Amino acid sequence: MNLPNDLFQFSALLAAVVLLAIPLGGYLAKVYQGERTWLSPFLVPCENFCYRLCGVDQNDDMSWQRYALAMVLFNLVLFLLLVAMLLIQPLLPLNPQKLPGLSWPLALNTAVSFVTNTNWQNYSGESTLGYFSQMVGLTVHNFVSAASGMAIAVAVIRGFVRRSSAFIGNFWVDLTRSVLYVLLPLSLVAALFLVSQGVIQNFSAYKTVPLVQATTTEKPQLDAQGNPLLDRAGKPLTDKVTVRQATIPMGPVASQEAIKELGTNGGGFFNANSAHPFENPTPLANFVEVLLILLIPAALTRTFGVMVGNPRQGWALLGVMLFLFVLALGVLHWQELASTPLLKQLGVVGGNLEGKELRFGLAGTDMFEVATTATSCGAVTAMHDSFTPLGGLVPLSLILLGEIVFGGVGSGLYTMLAFAVIAVFVSGLMIGRTPEYLGKKIEVREMWMAIVTILIAGIVVLILSGIAIITPAAVASMANPGAHGLTEVLYAFASMANNNGSAFAGLNGNTNFYNLLGALAMLIGRYAPAVAMLAMAGGLAAKKYVPPSLGTLPTDKFPFAFWLTLVILIVGALTFFPALALGPIVEHLAMVGGN
Amino acid sequence: MKELKPAMLMCLLFTLLCGGLYPALVTGLGQALFPHQAGGSLLTAANGQTVGSALIGQPFTAPGYLWPRPSATADFSYNPMASGGSNLGPTNPALLTAVKERIGVLRATGVSGPIPADLVLASASGLDPHLSPAAARLQIPRIAKARGLSEEMVANLVTSHTEGRQLGLLGAPRVNVLAVNLALDTISR
Hints:
The structure holds two protein chains of two kinds. By secondary structure, chain A is mainly α.
């Protein structure tokens, strides 16, 4: 491994993110404020056509209640359509492998997962879903769940911008603009680039090819009921089977891969997700996928700065995100390069490559894993379950912080704004100044909404993980023994409640327990903060503007960014340290202690 | 419930746009511009038969072939219908037992010194088509002996199938295992 080269790759990534986020953020501000952009001549007629078709009046400003209702109703209709599609899969076209319908708990979990932008997957794509379900079902959700998040974020920004107003914008307009002006054009370009690198895009039946060298495998013997047969010693009986051919899955992958990263969705076409060579074939494809994941969340900080009339307000938030990102990347890369003492004793050199692909190198792998868990993406190029104990702590902590290090498309920004409100309030108490943010007084209502936004996911994680470890059926799903098994469960609920979707994938999630409680966690984790932030926006929009005075804490300077970082870390540590100590930290200590 | 009508219509509209038009457009343009990649980068033998994909690894265990990374896919190694990793934790005894066994197999073929991690640790997809140059070099003496070729010949073949970092910067240097083995079969059976 080559550390200078790794550092250069990381620097190139961060530079590319910042350099692309500036123009894109400005463009987004223009789009949401209805100003002309270079795509307008072509897209304005399309946009107006959509409104006419759906009976939307684009000048119809909504109260926060109407805005939230429109968002929830739209998501509900999408959810019902997807559940139906998954249940009746055999009746749908484009299913060359004749895959059957999903069981209702799995269909429910999957539909909730995609509508909430989580993309937790309790199934293997290649052996469960036909092309119609993937494309007309899941790809559509990849677009609209991201667009819903962007719409909410813009409405929250308007709450800060507008003065003495009862309205925060029109959900249908924000939604349509997000898809037409941003997600569709960027996805189209990205998908074609990914095809050039080797990501597949076709509707062929799966290809069966002869293996160059036939291979043998042990197949367990089963009795008439399908249970494995055991010998007298209790070991499973097996037959030697010769395998002479393999079946290579196909499908419209690139079109889904592009929006999966761009919309921080993360649901893989295949079980191995972005580790699969057909989803992520080259190091350059990997780099571009990481860039796509970070692009819109980073750009939205710029959009925020532009729309509130002071770009430095956006820079402050972006600075906090970049700092936490670099910190996480540093720890993960250090741990995975160092590997474990157990492997070193056996003479194994070259880092911890269990559950990683060779082509990306550790640098490419680690930047992807940090990006995917810093945002609410959850696509993976490596299996987090096989990370070193402290390496695995990094994605878990990023998720538990509440998906604010860039965060989900839209949701990252509005959750970060909730933290900013808390930071302003606490500092106001400490120095005896009136808490104000962007010229709006922070009062009881704002604090309630910010606290709901920040704490609800954490409460859900701790309660549901607690229920899981006293439920035998849930414990039976753990794949690894000891503290690592606890980490698998904690990670699962953290991932679902924060709408990430990555996993310590050894855990068998396709059981009624995880399908149903997981669906609950995803619903609460998505809609409680979204509605709370819209409520905050509605309240803020109605307030008068308070011009900054000597008593105002400037929120666009380094001291505030530093303070905000501390608030984020303290809230995270106070909420989760006990649980983390029992999982990855104890596993690490036992490992270095030789137990 | 004034919003119910636009909710249903928008849902249908975006389903057509993002689930129909967009993938169709990507498929059309992708197939036209990059037909080989869009179809799975399939490899064809001299007799016209498809023998696999350049991107999907295959299992090799015979001494005359370059061995790929371990694979944790279900049913058999490198099963493309069951992509995935082992998900074994770093302190799981099952992982250490498996690694020791794999090292034992390598030592039995005369390999000495440190073991490159990729040769004994399973990949994330279970289909990783690549091996590090160091892991490939370790196997050259065994392959040469099994096929009655000179080590230099095998080494040249491995070198000619080694890719560097992409754009000189990204990823890791790597050897495509299936490509090396197909080339080995063309020069000696």
